[in-house]
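Design job #97: recover the sequence.
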């Protein structure tokens, strides 16, 4: 784990989903490659400062994170993967995309959730954004085997980054207020 493990994208995992996986005899969750589990139900993805992300050129804010979470169970029937989330914001509306779990090396990314994202001022060297009204995107219902419907409420999002390095986490149009 990185020494800056608090930096990054913090996203609560639905308690009902975690309980469901825990009840399965073979249910498991694996957090790796920059993703960790904090406080029992918060997924933390580390900032991705190396990759180039050309598709966000029209964004007001773009932030990239890396890490891989994989839930499995029901003898292979449950297979949920959330990897390398990107946040793209236009106005106050944001979208989180992830690698397509079935075609991670090709094609477009999978829109996972859409939400409202607001910047919070701090007195120190941190920048914080809070994501509320986090709703499942239509394109992602299949990721959860259509158990959750379009617009299903997901947990809130928090993004914590150092202000001195904030422009390294996204493209040149990053806005910090």
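Job complete. Output follows.
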């Amino acid at each position: 784990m990185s020494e800056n493990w608090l930096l990054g994208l913090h996203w609560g995992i639905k308690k009902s989903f975690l309980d469901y996986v825990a009840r399965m005899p073979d249910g498991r969750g694996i957090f790796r490659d920059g993703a960790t589990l904090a406080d029992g139900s918060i997924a933390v993805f580390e900032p991705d400062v190396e990759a180039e992300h050309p598709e966000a050129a029209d964004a007001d804010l773009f932030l990239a994170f890396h890490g891989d979470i994989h839930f499995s169970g029901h003898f292979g029937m449950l297979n949920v993967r959330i990897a390398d989330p990107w946040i793209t914001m236009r106005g106050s509306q944001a979208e989180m995309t992830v690698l397509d779990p079935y075609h991670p090396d090709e094609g477009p990314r999978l829109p996972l959730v859409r939400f409202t994202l607001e910047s919070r001022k701090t007195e120190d060297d941190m920048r914080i954004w809070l994501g509320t009204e986090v709703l499942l995107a239509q394109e992602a219902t299949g990721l959860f085997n259509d158990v959750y419907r379009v617009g299903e409420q997901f947990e809130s999002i928090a993004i914590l980054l150092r202000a001195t390095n904030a422009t390294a986490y996204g493209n040149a149009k990053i806005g910090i207020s």
